[in-house]
Design goal:
The complex is a heterodimer of chains A (292) and B (355). Chain A is mainly α. Chain A folds into 2 domains: 19-52; 56-291, Orthogonal Bundle (MetI-like fold). Chain A has helices spanning 23-52, 57-65, 67-100, 106-118, 121-132, 139-144, 153-164, 166-179, 182-189, 194-223, 226-231, 242-250, 254-291. The longest helix of chain A has 38 residues, at 254-291. Chain B is of the alpha+beta class and 355 residues long. Chain B folds into 2 domains: 3-238, Rossmann fold, CATH 3.40.50; 243-352, Beta Barrel (OB fold (Dihydrolipoamide Acetyltransferase, E2P)). Chain B has a 6-stranded mixed β-sheet with strand order 6-7-8-3-9-10, sandwiched between helices. In chain B, strands 13-12-11-14-20 form a 5-stranded antiparallel β-sheet. In chain B, strand 17 (308-315) and strand 18 form a beta hairpin. In chain B, helix 2 crosses helix 3 (112-125) and helix 2 (93-102) packs parallel to helix 4. The chains are: A mainly alpha (292), B alpha+beta (355). At the A-B interface, helix 9 and helix 10 of A face strand 6 and helix 4 of B.
Amino acid sequence: MSTSVARLPIVVPRGRAAPSEPRAVRWLLIGTATAFLGLFLLLPLLTIFAQAFEKGTAAYCSALAHPDTLKAIRLTLLAALVCVPAGTLFGIAAAWAIAKFDFAGKNLLVTLVDLPLSVSPVVAGLLFVLLFGRFGVLGPWLEAHGVRIIFAVPGIFLATLFVTCPFVARELIPLMQAQGIEEEEAARALGAGGWQIFRRVTLPNIKWGLLYGVILCNARAMGEFGAVAVVSANVRGLTSTMTLHIDDLYNEDITAAFAVASLLALLGVVTLVAKSLVEWRVARQMAQAEAL
Amino acid sequence: MSIEVQHISKTFGTFAALHDVSLTVQTGELVALLGPSGSGKTTLLRIIAGLEQPDPASGPILFHDEDVARRDVGSRQVGFVFQHYALFRHMTVFENVAFGLRVRPRRLRPGRNLIKFKVLRLLKLVQLEALAIRYPNQLSGGQRQRVALARALAIEPKVLLLDEPFGALDARVRQELRQWLRRLHDEIHLTSVFVTHDQDEAMELADRVLVMNQGRIEQIGTPDVVFHHPQTEFVMNFLGQVNVFHGRLQDGKVHFASVTVDPPDPVRVQDQPVKVFVRPHDFEIQPQQNGSPCIRAVVQRIHSAGPNVRLDLVAESGEHLHAEMAQDRFRALQITVDSQVFVTPREVKVFTDQG
């Protein structure tokens, strides 16, 4: 029983029966897919690196070593460091509740988990501005207590958390539902406590799905632009993340912008590779779970 | 340790899984909860275990006169064996069996060597010592079930509860494990309750059988009593093969399928329509009439493969009959398809339409 629209990792089946399409059609389809990938993925990637090194390696390094850039990198890393664990905890809790328990409002929770992904990031950012901004709902209260959320670092964390929290949950929900509750019940009957059940039985069973979700969550946390743009004043050196900084630099020093962008591109490549490795393991665990 | 549950009811939403069920299991007894799907037998077992909670108005659940209804499953010290084994897939056989001992609180936990000793001893009991380092997905169904049993026994439970333990296995393995379980029970004398929908299994294994239907207990008794002296229509129908006829109780006699016989017990109720039940082996087949009341019938099919011969017949009055007889009697009678025979019901059971 799958109650969410979580996307399952794509696994290419091997050794299936011979397709019925003629060779020409097959090559046409493969060719189109490759061309598409090449045009929209490889070409931009190569362009980023080409542009970044246009003025030479020295310029590249000095662009990255600039204090504002370093601060932007630091802020992005900090956001990831805060939001990925938080999103992971949320994901584990939500998936656990949805897969193991029956409660009123369960379907609502599943829908809410997907909500941040269906909302435009700009709208998400606006949401926080309307809540915590100076003229927002909680604005006066926050100002009275000297707390700054919007146009300050906490706001960036909140906005990033909002857009990244579904990722771990979406990976774990179908996985934990497929695995069922029997092993946990057996552990209960053998006298194990809640934490023991989680650590010894549940966690080992979901570790690959969890890793997959964390990888995606991290990629999104570091690459978020829209929500963060609305929520931060983009004050250089203070509330500027890498993505915002790139946008900023683009109007001044294109090469430097591409230099910083190359870092994110690198992150993208690393994410893709790690994703593929884990994807394969997750699909295997799912198949095992359904077969048992 | 004895088990006693009193007035247990359980509703899931609007569905009543159990209605006011009470039962007692003596120390060392092996009891079967037998019934079709939806009869509530698994729900009852899980309530005894503590995996489900009965409705608030229910009575106590007593383990040796101590009410454990408020206790969580972990503290009831029951060994539970699941239908689909529920083995920990990422742990070896050894680790699976050792689990219950390893999760004990520190002061109650045995040392590593003691755990190893106990686990290996249990694996020897279930004849799986050679597979200690294998993973569950490397085992056959029968082996997995034995591991599940060893795992449940590791915590030295007072009570063993099995939920359709052999349901997921094929016929041959089921047979072997059935006999093996009975021998094991004779050896360790642990109070055990198991759930099954397979009547052969219940009849063969259990000291006593509890027949359940739609959340209620139909009858409790030894396999012999339940089979030969069914108290309700459901029990008669559910156990073994049976022929069912619509008949009439009139003037102290039972009329059905163009034959009239004496009722099994003295008649105390008024004339009314009744259901008449006859077991296949209670139909006596004769080539000629012999004076006793009989039904004229024609043989349609003969199933001679098996310990007994089974016959499908059609009565003169149109009813379909199923009869059973020993192989040598069949050979002596020399019956063939389409031959006409005379069928005498030796023993009938009568249930009024109220059950």
